[in-house]
Amino acid sequence: MQKIGSLITKKFDPLDTDKYISREFQKYAYELAVELEDLPHKSLYMRLAKNTARGLMESARSFVKDAVNAKSKGRLYMWKLKRLKTEKQLKENVKR
Fold it and tell me: What is the C-alpha R_g of the chain?
C-alpha cells in the first residue's frame, strides 16, 4: 500500500504541462515566438498559426534561422512571410 499523496505527486507535475495551451497551433505559435525572441507578440503568431498555411510559416522560419545577423527576428519573419504569401497569390492568379 502506498499513500495517496505519493501517487498524486508522481503522476501530476504542474511544471511539465502547458497551462494555457489547449490546441496544437497555440503551442506552435508560442514556440515560434520564443525562437524569434518576440514574446510580446505571441498572440499575433497564434493568429497566424491558426489562419496561415504551415508550409509558408515553416519556410519563413527556416529563412530567419539562416539569417544570423538579424536585428529583429520577428520583423524579418513577418517580412518573409508576407513575401511568400504574395508569391503564392501571384502563382495562383497566373494559373487562372
Answer: 19
Domain that includes residue 70, residue range: 4-95
**What is the total count of domains within the chain?**
1
> pLDDT-derived band of residue 64, with 50, 70 and 90 as boundaries?
very high
| Dihedral sign (CA 52, 53, 56, 60) | positive
Write the DSSP string, 7-57.
HHHHH--TTTS-SS--SHHHHHHHHHHHHTT-GGGHHHHHHHHHHS-HHHH
- Angle of helix 73-95 relative to helix 54-66, nearest 10 degrees, comes to 130
| Count of beta carbons in the 10 Å neighbourhood of residue 90 | 10
Whole-prediction pTM? 0.77
Helix axes 54-66, 24-35, angle to 10 degrees: 20
